[in-house]
Amino acid sequence: MPTLIDKEVQLLSRIRNGDERAIDEIYIASKGRFLAFARKLLNDENSLEDVYQDTVIAFYENVRTGKITSLNSSITTYIIGIGKYMLYHHLKKTKAMSNLDDVDELDLGIATNTYIEQIENKETAIILQQAIEKLGEPCTSLLRLFYYEEKENTEIATLLGYANADVIKSQKYRCMQVLKVIMKKTYKNGK
């Protein structure tokens, strides 16, 4: 059975080959998480739809032009990353928020740590994967299920035998704190 990563590699290949259905699949699959994130910054549904469409179009063009050849995160996470900046520009343009000098200071609620979204090269991706493996269980499984397989907290709780989604949120926070420490040590020691 193909993994999520295999499916996403196939989707990228299909887009590069002009398969319009691939972008439709991505559009539908990513929309819920994108809108959940975007509603924290903007509550105008029409504008949200416009920003989402522009975001997916930008993603599509990046794949078609070869700007994106592979991803070190899920397609949805990448789309949210593009959308974050499109939302920022939309809000600044419409003056819906008065002080948006530094988008990184906004609490975007994507994750407690943005290492996963900001991976820019394969070396960093390898270091991150090694750091996640150093975490051990249950952190390795929990983070894999949440960030790579995009499972909901309730589903992760069921899969890992936890009482409920709140326990998963707490455990995920603890795992991310340990991951931050491991990543900082790794970079401090010169990778």
UniProtKB/TrEMBL annotation:
<protein>
    <submittedName>
        <fullName>Sigma-70 family RNA polymerase sigma factor</fullName>
    </submittedName>
</protein>
<dbReference type="InterPro" id="IPR013325">
    <property type="entry name" value="RNA_pol_sigma_r2"/>
</dbReference>
<dbReference type="InterPro" id="IPR039425">
    <property type="entry name" value="RNA_pol_sigma-70-like"/>
</dbReference>
<dbReference type="InterPro" id="IPR014284">
    <property type="entry name" value="RNA_pol_sigma-70_dom"/>
</dbReference>
<feature type="domain" description="RNA polymerase sigma-70 region 2">
    <location>
        <begin position="32"/>
        <end position="95"/>
    </location>
</feature>
<dbReference type="InterPro" id="IPR007627">
    <property type="entry name" value="RNA_pol_sigma70_r2"/>
</dbReference>
<dbReference type="GO" id="GO:0016987">
    <property type="term" value="F:sigma factor activity"/>
</dbReference>
<dbReference type="Pfam" id="PF04542">
    <property type="entry name" value="Sigma70_r2"/>
</dbReference>
<dbReference type="InterPro" id="IPR036388">
    <property type="entry name" value="WH-like_DNA-bd_sf"/>
</dbReference>
<keyword id="KW-0238">DNA-binding</keyword>
<dbReference type="GO" id="GO:0003677">
    <property type="term" value="F:DNA binding"/>
</dbReference>
<dbReference type="InterPro" id="IPR013324">
    <property type="entry name" value="RNA_pol_sigma_r3/r4-like"/>
</dbReference>
<keyword id="KW-0804">Transcription</keyword>
<keyword id="KW-0731">Sigma factor</keyword>
<keyword id="KW-0805">Transcription regulation</keyword>
<comment type="similarity">
    <text>Belongs to the sigma-70 factor family. ECF subfamily.</text>
</comment>
<dbReference type="GO" id="GO:0006352">
    <property type="term" value="P:DNA-templated transcription initiation"/>
</dbReference>
